[in-house]
Amino acid sequence: MSAAPVADRVREVWAAGDYQRVGVRLVPAAEQLAADLGVRPGDRVLDVAGGTGNAALAAARRDGDVVCTDVVPELLELARRRAQLEGLSFVTQVADVCALPFPDASFDVVVSTFGVVFAAEPEQAARELLRVLRPGGRLGLTAWRPDAPGGRLLALVARHDPADATGDPLRWGTPTGVEGLLGRGEVRQVRHTERTVDMTAPSLADQWQRYRDWFGPVHVAWRRLDPAGRAALEADFADLWGSSTRGGGPGVVVPNTYLQTTAVRAG
Questions:
Q1: Which of 82, 85, 90 lies closest to 63 in space, CA to CA?
Q2: Is residue 63 part of a domain?
Q3: Which GO biological process entries does UniProt record here (predicted)?
Q4: In the prediction, which pLDDT does 1 show?
């Protein structure tokens, strides 16, 4: 399959559902990344595959000069509205991470929280992240660990409906994988940190309904599957999330571990 149809598929998946309702749960990861990168007033910041703007908002709260990009215009409109509600501002621009429309060395900080990992061409996406980052600039990425519930969910969806698999997200979730993508000698001061966010819901049934209705990869797979396939997907989701929840109280509390990678562009 050529790059263009794959990129179109990525756009279709993330335009489906209502990602804002899921993505808002990841605000703590974006805030942590902005703090660890030391975003300062006036830093030129690019949020790549920014969705509804979690990382862009985190950088704007620290008075960065921010551009938020994504391939889905509807998600960027939500990002703009969120910023407006908070009295913040940043530029939004539709852009494919594999072909960023910015000159070389345009930004002091480049970030992506659970976004670039779904790029149609991971190697090309990694090259673009570094191309637009100035030498000495800071790079920050987050991705689900393959063995965490988030990573296992992506693998589960790909197993049930391979046609809906987008990018190579689990490759970005290990130190070896992300360093292989960024390239030897291209970055320095590389630091990998495992962090966790809790994914909560009043019940397992509520959690399933949220992912089925709101989370693009699950939503699109559900639409494509026949009744038997839908039942199997729901059963596997229930087993995964149910076995991952912390006990000791009502509702569902699933600790979801992700890899945070920060680095400085060499040169």
A1: 90
A2: yes
A3: methylation
A4: 39
Helix (H) or strand (E) holding 245: none
Residues 4-21 have pLDDT tens digits of 566 677 888 888 889 999
Question: Is 190 in contact with 251 (CB distance < 8 Å)?
Answer: no
Rounded Cα distance between 151 and 160, Å, is: 15
pTM of the model: 0.94
The answer to whether residue 156 is domain-embedded is: no
Query: At residue 93, does pLDDT exceed 70?
Result: yes
Q: List, in sequence order, every residue forming a beta bridge with 107; answer none if it has no partner.
A: 133
Calpha distance 239→244 (Å, rounded): 8
Rounded-to-integer distance, Cα 177 and Cα 110, Å: 19
- Asked if residue 230 is part of any domain, the answer here is no
CATH number at residue 19: 3.40.50.150
Domain count, the chain: 1
DSSP state letter for 184: T
5/13 Cα distance (integer angstroms) = 12
Between the CA atoms of 28, 73, 138 and 172, what dihedral angle is there, to the nearest 10 degrees? 70
Give pLDDT, residue 134.
98
Residue-number span of the structural domain to which 68 is assigned? 3-148+163-199+257-265
Q: Is 212 part of a structural domain of the chain?
A: no
Q: Read off the pLDDT of each residue in 29-46 and give the average, rounded to a whole number.
A: 98
Tokens of 226: 């026949």
